[in-house]
Amino acid sequence: MMKLIAHARRSTQRVLMQQQHHHLDGRFIKNVRLVARRNKISLRSLGMGLQRSVSYKQRVQPIQRSTTKAENKGRDVSTNLRTPPFQSDLNTNDPVISLDSSYNSWVAEHPSALDSFDRMMKTAKGKRIVVFLDYDGTLSPIVDNPDRALMSDEMRAAVREVAKYFPTAIITGRSRDKVTEFVKLSNVYYAGSHGMDIMAPPRPVKSGTAGNDHQTIALDHRKEISTSHEVLFQPAKKFLPAIQEIFTMLEEKTEKIQGVRIEDNSFCVSVHFRQVREEDYGILEEKVKSVVKKYPEFHLTEGKMVLEVRPSIEWNKGHALEYLLDTLGFSNSSDVLPLYIGDDRSDEDAFKVIRSRGQGYPIIVSSIPKDTNALYSLQDPSEVLSFLLRLARWKKASFSSRTLHEYGF
Ligand SMILES: [Mg+2]
After folding, report:
1. Range in 203-207, 304-308, 341-345 with the lowest mean pLDDT
2. Ligand 1 centroid distance, CA of 21 (Å)
3. The domain that contains 391 carries what CATH number?
4. To which pathway does this protein belong (predicted)?
């Protein structure tokens, strides 16, 4: 019996560590609860205590977000239904095994971008692809120490190659400086602090941008540091002094909790709890809440094993995507295809923007079923690498075939 409990706990904890607070497939949650109930294990001890934080987040966050189920029925689906993670670890008698079928049905709804590549590129012919990439969990593996979330040289080379052929931007919750230091590429644009700190080309001069919602915000709060080719856009600049106060206060309040790491991301502050003991989650959350409560202009969101304190402005990764498309000269273009790859909840805002534009490819990185606005999926950063290499190769090939054609071959 003890062995069964230990096995159930191990299997479930590993899967839950992977899903990191995200909305789960309903059947999977049911299975986790079933395992817990049958074995009289508390959900909290299985890691389900984290679910509490999800509802808390929904209460405190003033900016409305909705995670609608992908409305993508009727699209072509991949025939290669990949196996879920940890399958080899799962006992076939274990109810968690049905993660397999829920993952497969999830992939049927969010086909692999690798398997769908040819079809995606067929649609892309003659259109301008603009590539947007999240950093953590997309280009780099998720690691215990966020300072060590380094991308591989192989991944760097792939991004460099993609950026040779397509305008490419990295949109991350990290500070712009930190992600620039990680990525070390000069041919990509960087948007840090969930898009609140963007280094982009100067906005093209144009008149009358009716329907362009972020234009006003951009002009009102704009801080520009012009270099010859780029402009710095920081819509939350006025919050900087408060953010510094919050950072210091969070450091002081949480210093006694072992394993907490507070990261100054310029326009938001991250509280990483990946290395915090589970029994301390509650007290940590309380401490963070008590700080945020003092600053009504800020709110709390959650990412992967991280709580984030952000200014309550209507600006997220989705707005950053639109801003970058605009500055790249594509705001009213009907033949631009934004392609966005990301793994975190904050990436859903960008997925939504792409879906509302009616064209483009929102791609989620996930090895477990998740409620998402993305249309396609990739399992992990290694599949992201394969996808980026393929994308660059595809463009290179179409370049050379055009050249051959031009020379009459
Ligand atoms: Mg991420």
Report:
1. 203-207
2. 13
3. 3.40.50.1000
4. Glycan biosynthesis; trehalose biosynthesis
Q: What is the dihedral of CA 134, 139, 142, 143, to 10 degrees?
A: -130
What is d(CA 264, CA 247) in angstroms, rounded to the nearest whole number?
A: 7
More confident residue, 166 or 85: 166
Q: Which two tokens stand for residue 143?
A: 């690691």
Within-domain flag for 81: no
Residues 12 and 43 in one domain: yes
CB 325 within 8 A of CB 350: no
Domain containing residue 163: 117-140+148-236+315-406
pLDDT digits (tens, 9 = 90+) for 254-299: 999 999 999 999 999 999 999 999 999 999 999 999 999 999 999 9
How many Å lie between the centroid of ligand 1 and the Cα of residue 1? 38
Q: 149 C-alpha to center of ligand 1: Å?
A: 11
State the burial class of residue 342 (Cβ atoms within 10 Å of its Cβ: 0-12, 13-18, 19+): buried
Which residues partner with 353 through β-bridges? none
CA dihedral angle for residue 180, residue 184, residue 186, residue 189, rounded to 10 degrees: -30
Strand order in the sheet with 306-311: 261-264, 269-272, 306-311, 298-303
CA 247 to ligand 1 centroid distance, Å? 21
What domain count does the chain have?
3
297 near 311, Cβ under 8 Å?
A: yes
Output the six-digit token pair for 210.
């009716």
Residue 235 CA to residue 313 CA, distance in Å, equals 9
Query: What single-letter amino acid sits at 343?
Result: D
Q: Is the pLDDT of residue 81 over 60?
A: no
Which element (helix H / strand E) includes 306? strand 306-311
pLDDT at residue 372 is higher than 70: yes
Burial (CB < 10 A; 0-12, 13-18, 19+), residue 135, is buried
